[in-house]
Structures are given as structure tokens and as C-alpha cells.
Amino acid sequence: MNRFNPVLPVDEYLVETNVLFYLNDALTQLLEHKEEYTQFGVIRYFAEYFSSVKNSNHVLFREYNYIKATPHNRASFIKVFWRCFRQIGRSGDVLSMQEYSSVLQLLCPDFPVELVQSAARIVLMDDAVDYLMSFADFLYAFQLLFYYHEFLASVLTIYQDLLFGKSPNTVIVPTSIAVEQLPLLATEENTSQELQEGVEASTLAECINGLCDRFKQSYPSRTCMLDVLEQSPKVTYYGFLMGLAKHDTINTEIGALPNRSDVLVDPEMDQELLKLISQISASPGSNSSGSVPGGLRESQKKASPRRSLHHRRRMEVESDGSTEETDSSES
Predict the structure, then answer these.
(1) What is the pLDDT of residue 303?
(2) Alpha-carbon span 164 to 186, nearest angstrom
(3) 83-112, pLDDT tens digit by residue?
(4) Dihedral (C-alpha) 288, 326, 316, 274: value to the nearest 10 degrees?
(5) d(Cα 180, Cα 146) in Å, to the nearest integer?
(6) How far apart are CA 276 and CA 173, in angstroms?
């Protein structure tokens, strides 16, 4: 929409775009780190903050409650995860659930292991989450689960009710409770029955349609969900999620990742990496940390690693998704 001639009233526009959320966060960070930020000027600070939000770099090193707070934050975190660790897929490496959890916690230190475990179950289709997974398989499963987490948790509750013969009409849409704490198909007995039987796809489709009518947060398009459920007369929960994770329309709706065929391609990031390597090579006796001005390094030491805006800008400009800077500086 044209922001100067919005279709929505002003109040609804502010809610839809989460402007007040970001303004509140910007003010909070400014007050917490005012000695650092005010030396650059308040106007420049706000310009850089909202530029980082627009460019999706604002979620680096932030706490989990922040990165899941808005749809834009979630899509941004998915994009950052892809760009930072795309080399895993390019090198042909496969990782375990625990390794993917560790990788995600490099970007968000308190990222919940439970959510990574659930994403692994989508890929592996069972409770054996210690097997190895390719980067692409995990990435698209993670994208689906993280972006639509609350909705899919409600679908799980409905699925479990249908699986054990309960009425799904009383399902409560989770709001205030932490969705990460919702029970999965917890016991081995339940998991075995789920894998062997599943539920009637038509019944689940009817229940999901009713859930969409009353759900207030983001959820996959009904057309996509119906398309997946029409593939077979019975469906398992993780089979349903796997179908959604592979659906091109879902990927387009979220807008964070390229098509699966292009997931290992990122010309913009490759160009930035070549620039960085060229700068390092051209600097006599330099290492990757030597390309950073001393004053900036000092300011980074003083700032919170999760909340420093200038730390995030360093990641954007110098590596924009590479872990090489981190590796060399640590060594």
C-alpha cells in the first residue's frame, strides 16, 4: 500500500506494520546504551536502527522473544540463518539436530532446543532426531515451523484429539503460554501409533478450516493446506508438515528464502565475500580483525553483543552471512 494514502486507517496501519514495537525497542536500546549511541547522534542512531530493520539485519544476536515478536522478525531470522550458514549445504555437510541447534544459538543464544527438535522431526518423520540432515531439508522445515509456530502447535493439539478419539471442538488456541512447552507426540507408544495410523485427512481439513476462522496470527494459506491434505485419505501430523515445508507457495508467502533449487545460490553475498577477501589480501600483514578500525573494536567490546546496533552493522557490511570473520577473530 501507499503509506501516504493508506488503505487502512492509521491505527490499523501501525498495528499491521508493528511500527510502535520497533520504535519502543529502538528507544529501549538507546536508553540502555546511551553513552555509546549518543556520541554518533540520536538522528543517525534512529536512521541506522530502522535501516537495519528494513534490511533484516536487526535480529542478529537478539534474544528469542525479540526475534519471534513479529512476522518480519521471524522472516528476517530465517533469512539470516540461510545466508550465514549456506556454506554447510554447499560443502555437502549433513548435521544432527543438536548441531543445528548449536548453529542457531550462534545467532540467538537462547534459541529453544525444543523448536529445533520439532523441525528435525518434520524432516525425519519420526522421533529419532539424532540422525543427520541436509541443510536444505532442515532449512525449509525450520522455516515452516518457526514462522507458523503458534498455528502449527494448535494443529498438533487438534491432531492428537482426533488420533485418540476426542472431540477437537474444544481446542484452545494458545496465546499466553509458551508454545515451545506444548506437548509433542510425547511417548514412544503415541509416536508409534501416529506413524502407523494417522487421521482422516478430510476430517483434519475440516478442523483446520475452523481453526483458521478464529486464529488471529499468521497461518499458511488454506489452499496450500487443503492441497497437501488432498494427497491421501489419511495423513500424519509430521507428514502434513513435510508437505507444507516442500510447498513452493508457502515459501513464497513467507518471502525469506529462494526456491529450493536456488537455496545454495546467493550472488549478493558471494560478491561481498569476494570484496572482503580482496581487502584482507591487499592489506599487508593483515588478518580479518585488522580490517576493523580500532575505535570500532573498542566500542564493540563495551556494548552488549546481543543489542549493539553497530555490532550488527559490522556483520552486515563485513561478512553479511559469512562465519569467516568470527572464525579468524577467535583464532
Answers:
(1) 40
(2) 13
(3) 999 888 888 889 999 999 999 999 999 999
(4) 50
(5) 10
(6) 48
